[in-house]
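Cross-check.
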Amino acid sequence: MQKTLIVDALNAETAQDAVQICGWARTRRDLGTCSFVEVNDGSCLANMQCVVDHGTDAYASLGSAGVGAALSVTGALTPSPGKDQKWEVRAEKIRVLGHADPETYPLQKKRHSDEFLRGIAHLRMRTNKYGAAFRIRSQAAWAVHEFFRERHFVWVHTPVLTGSDCEGAGEMFRVTTLPPGEENAGKDFFTRNCYLTVSGQLEAEALAMGLGRVYTFGPAFRAENSNTPRHAAEFWMVEPEMAFADIMDCMELGEGLIRHVVERVLEHCEADLRLFDNFVDKDLLIRLRAMLEKPFARVTYAEAVRLLESSDKSFVFPVVFGMDLQTEHERYLAEEHFQQPVIVYDYPREVKPFYMRCNNDNETVAAMDILAPRIGELVGGSQREERLDVLTQRLQETGKDPDDYWWYTDLRRFGSAPHAGFGLGFERLLMLLTGIANIRDVIPFPRTPGSLDF
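Predicted model, tokenized:
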């Protein structure tokens, strides 16, 4: 018999004489004449109630199997007299595929703290909260690909191993085949220092210079010892690059992507979102729907600083023109002043990387950040510097040897064109979609300082 996913069984239009569902027991209640076992297979938030009559072969096969056991249940899909459930399965045959020791199984029918569940990350996806979070993650990823495909972007794969530091922060994981204590890079596998990438942007620029519109969607790594709710050592980035585009095109694309993903998740993950709206963030659905009602606010960096300076907020980091905005500043702008996502653009050149295009004032660059309520920076992007002489000067100003970026500067020698792109932190987008406040809880197996257990 073909197995039926619980999500399909619960949405069935008519009763069925026989279905087979497989999943894990969430609860078991033994009454006088029957047992009620709720089974979940991860396909949706709701459980399927299975009624097992005492004295039947199915009951004998069920035995002592309880919460956490993996079951295969075959029986008739019939209307349920219970409240808030349309169907139930009258079990005729049960196979216990895997027992769970009731004395040691850590997931019981109660609320567990996020800290506790992080310690059992290999099991936490069986809970309502994390099952919902990772289904939303899947839908959001599909929406990203859908958005770019509709706009004729080419999905490209950029290297995970790199010899250059795109962001210039220097916080990179080194990859080596040398034995401990050996520091001679010339003897290493690539005969030079090798690192895990922090961004696929530079390579994506090269691909855009031949394919026009491209995007990457993959892992990035940052060896930053920041034990905060917003940072992880391994995370996923969405990085589009557009040839023949400027900073305004970049803003439009970034806003459009966020709105598209929000719309699709609202459309396809209603039950999962409602769980977060009820138990995690009471204003989540209101905030997400509001994001679709009007365009994002836009403000220059200089205007943003003036707004911060004139506010009555006491910031931990005092606001000074020329500084890079901190999370508290970003959240004030998005949550309190504009009360919606806001795009800040034209940042001082001193606080931005070498590849961002210098504006005519020679003091700012054509950079933009999209700031979101509760998150802060969600997207960071810019028009790229397409002028060879200016790019070379910027490399030198930031302490980089232009010879190390020979192929990148070649793009400015051979058919250089205006181009722009951005990076969107996928996990931060998921935090926006779910109301989850810690990045560790939107990643199945988070990598953070001191944590590499799974």
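The longest strand covers residues 16-30. The chain has 13 helices and 16 strands. Passed to J.P. for a second look.
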